Each structure stands twice: as structure tokens, then as C-alpha cells.
Amino acid sequence: MNAVDIIIKKRNGAELSRAEIDDFINGITVGTIPDYQAAAWLMAVYFQGMTDRETTDLTLAMAASGEQLDLHDVLPGAVIVDKHSSGGVGDKTTLAVGPIVAACGLPVGKMSGRGLSFSGGTIDKLESICGWSAEVSEEHFRRQLRAIGLVVAAQTADLAPADKILYALRDVTGTVPSLPLIAGSIMSKKLAAGADAIVLDVKCGRGAFMETLADAQSLAQQMVAIGTLAGRKVTALITQMEQPLGLAVGNALEVQEAIATLHGCGPIDFQELAEVVAGEMLLIAGAANDLGDARDRVRAVIDDGRAFARFCDFVASQGGDTAQVEHPERLPAAPLVIAVPAPTSGYVHALDAREVGLVTVDLGGGRQKKGDPIDPAVGVMLAAKVGSKIAAGETLCTVHAASRAAADAAIPRLQAAYTIAAQPAAPLPIILDRMTG
Ligand code: URA
After folding, report:
1. CA–CA separation, 191 vs 187, rounded Å?
2. In this structure, are 206 and 168 located in the same domain?
3. Same domain? 276 vs 303
């Protein structure tokens, strides 16, 4: 069957066979299927969905499209543990969780992505640190994993290359929020990167690709099932993404917030999430007896500074300027910082995470099209979140912008992103559900 027939078959809602999926993914990888056919196929999948069997076949085909890492020779006997987020606004979890887990003695060798649509990406955030590079050779990856216990690398051209091609195309064709495409994208990378145990952070709400709890549960279930089928241990957490995570949205601002969290003084929701995800990683890897024990170990490495020290070692080993980490005020800063006043008094009932993410993209903190450069300094710093009491004229958030025009465009959008009402509102819980394989 040729590519057009496979596109038409999916467009018409039929189930693709394993051979058809393998052929299509192989064609994308070797370049015989051009971007425009891949994009048409993505749109067909977006509208028609995939059966569980098709999603599993897609995942396995993408994982097998390149090299499959085996890191056991680097640290014989160690359980290699990984985490992955399905993507959200203000999600800097890897930046805090990686060093915490590594400081607890568990090696974390991680492939991360760039921003996708309204959600930021770990690599873009870390690149705010002058000199830091995600392009590490396999030899460097192995050496650093052995020496420091923590590596965050860009997905190499050799690792799940089919996902790399499709990921970039999805970002610019409106085909990101598709359950089988997200499940396949995340799990293909996790399987190819060689982790024995994986903690998935499935975001749920306006700032996530899965907006409802039911969709997030179904994505989590599917990823846990695929991982288990492939012989990996998997835990999935479903976490809050109605409003942005923490207070910072924007690359350098989020690095600053992650550093504060490594010192134990991050915003309440983000501190909680970072500690819970790190605890789950210790538990799934057998490095803690139960969640309580895991949480104590996590607190210990934050309190005595080992987690922050590990972050510094990791940044230095990947070429980054540790002076910016030790003095986060030296990270890139926007020339304009403008307060956004509350239009009315009351309590914050909702804060549209997606809109805050889109505003950040429009400020220059994300990409409009494939390959666009991004400005690490811009973004939004929240002062009020759901549950906050606010008086008219008080600051809801601050805009960090490169120009007055960019800030002026952002301010009314940010005001409109807040829903303020007279009656009190409760803060939102951060963990919504948990599933294990
Ligand atoms: N993260 C990924 O790696 N892929 C997606 O599709 C979404 C989030």
C-alpha cells in the first residue's frame, strides 16, 4: 500500500494494520514520505483516532525507528528511572525532580523535548542558562550518567527519529491534542531511551492537551498499558493543569523557580508536585519502602543542599554557567516588567492556563512555526492564583516583555484569563489521580 492509500484509509475511519503503520512510520523515518503527507496523516489520526492496538503498534514502530539505548552497562545493577510529563503551562518539573532523584542516589538519564504549542519544553528552559547544551554525544551521556547521575539531553537524531519528525510537524499543524499521538510520542521515547521504571505526569485541564479528567485517565491508562506490555514498571499521576503550575511561565523565569524549589522554597503547588513525583520515582525504582519513606528522603536532600548541588554539577557538565544558577538574577531578564492590575475586587475562581501559555508564546517565549528562535527572558509571573483574594488595582501578574507593544497586547489578554467573583474560592488540588501498572 502506498502513503496516499494509508492516509485515505485513516481519513475514512478504518483501522490500520500493523504492517501499514510500520510502513508509514518507516517511510517518514527514511524520508520517502514527505512532510505534507505525514501532516495529512496526522490530521486524519487527529479526527479519526486510533484503536488501542493501533496506538500500541504506532508506539512500538516509533520506538524501533532508531537506536534503542541500553544503559545497564553504564551502571551495572542500577534501576534506570525516568519521568515524563504530557506537557503543560509552567511545567518545569524535570528541572527540580531530576536533581532531587539523582541526589537520592538514583541515576536519571533523560531525553527531553522542546516547547510544543502553548506548553513549554524542558530543553528550551534549560537553554536559558548561558552555554548549557542539550546536544550531548552518547559517550558524553554515558560518562555524565555514571559521574553525576543526571543527564538531560535533546532527543538525538537516532532515538525515536520518527517521533522527532512527527513531534515538530504536530506542533505546527494543530494536531498536538490527540490521545494516540501523545501516547505514542511519549512512550516511544521512553521505551527507546532504555528506562526500567517510568513515572508519567499526565496533565489535566485547560493548560494541558487532555482537558477532562476522563481523557487524562484514558491517556494514562493507555501509556501504563503500553509500558507494562514492553516490560517496564510504570506509575502515572494525573495532575492539575487548569491553571499554570507554580507562578512562573517563561523559560528563564521557570529556571529561577525550579532553583527556588531545589532550595525548598518554591510555590506551594510546584514544591508539592516536585516532591511527589520525585518520591514516586524512588518508590517505583525500589529505593524507598513506601511513599512516606520516599518523601522523607526527598526532603532530606533538599534540606541539606544536595539536590541543588547536583543541579549545579549537572549544569556545569553540560557546559552551562553555574554562576547564573548560584545567582539566578543573572539569568536573562526582559527589559520591561509591567504589572497587570485586577479589573475588579474578589476571589480568583479560574485562571486560564492555556491563555497564559499562548500569551507567553506571543511574547516570544515559544514558537509560532517550526524552528523559530525563542526569547528566554520573556514570560508571565503570576501573583494571584485560584483561591487568592484580590482588590481592584492590585497586581494579578507581571508581564516580562521585550517591547512596550508586546506588553500592551498581553495585558488585556491576561486580565481576561482571570475569572474573579465575589464569593471565596478554594485553591485547586495538585494531584488528581494515580495509576500503576
Ligand atoms: N510530550 C511528548 O513527548 N509528546 C507529546 O505528544 C506531548 C508531550
Report:
1. 6
2. yes
3. yes
Strands of 288-378, DSSP E: 336-341, 346-351
Domain count, the chain: 3
226 shares a domain with 181: yes
In a domain, 9, yes or no: yes
Contact 201, 98 (CB under 8 A): no
**176 vs 266: which has the higher pLDDT:** 266
How many C-beta neighbours within 10 Å does residue 131 have? Answer: 13
Q: Is the CB of 112 under 6 A from ligand 1?
A: no
What confidence category does residue 278 fall into, taking pLDDT thresholds of 50, 70 and 90?
A: very high
Q: Which residue's CA is the nearest one to ligand 1's atom 8?
A: 86
Give me ligand 1 centre to Cα 380, in Å.
Answer: 23
Burial string for 230-258 (b: 16+ CB within 10 Å, else e) reads bebbbbbbbbbbbbbbbbbbbbbbbbbbb
Reply yes or no on whether the pLDDT at 157 is more than 80. no
Q: Is the pTM of this model over 0.70?
A: yes
Residue showing cell 474573579: 420
CA separation for the pair 148, 45 (Å, rounded): 41
The catalytic residues are 84, 163, 170, 185, 189
Our mutation pick for probing the ligand 1 site, out of 94, 167, 170, 176, counting the most ligand atoms within 8 A of Cβ, is 167
Residue 305 and residue 189 share a domain: yes
**Residues 292 and 320 grouped into a single domain:** yes
115 has pLDDT over 90: no
Measured N-to-C along each axis, helices 52-63 and 179-192 cross at an angle, to the nearest 10 degrees, of: 40
The parent domain of residue 269 ranges over: 81-327
- Verify whether ligand 1 is closer than 6 Å to residue 121 (CB atom): no
Quick check: 348 pLDDT over 90? yes
Looking at the domain assignment, is residue 202 inside a domain?
Answer: yes
Q: In which band, very low, low, confident or very high, does the pLDDT at 310 lie, cut at 50, 70 and 90?
A: very high
In a domain, residue 181? The reply is yes
Q: Which ligand 1 atom minimizes the distance to the CA of 209?
A: 7
pLDDT > 70: percent of the chain: 100
Q: What is the CATH number of the domain that holds 18?
A: 1.20.970.10
